Backbone:
């Protein structure tokens, strides 16, 4: 299986497509390590878009 490219996005509630460090798109922002297959979490109580910034 090939890795998803850096910059791949996923939204809250989707299954994480690639293990790594994910960053919230927009402000306020944060980063979080998320493992492949886990659900993408909300941030600040809202659904957000996450962008893959680094592989695990």
Residues:
């Amino acid at each position: 299986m090939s890795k998803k490219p850096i910059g791949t996005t996923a939204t809250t509630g989707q299954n994480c497509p690639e293990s790594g460090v994910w960053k919230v798109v927009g402000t306020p922002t944060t980063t979080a390590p998320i493992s492949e297959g886990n659900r993408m979490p909300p941030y600040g109580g809202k659904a957000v878009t996450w962008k893959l910034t680094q592989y695990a």
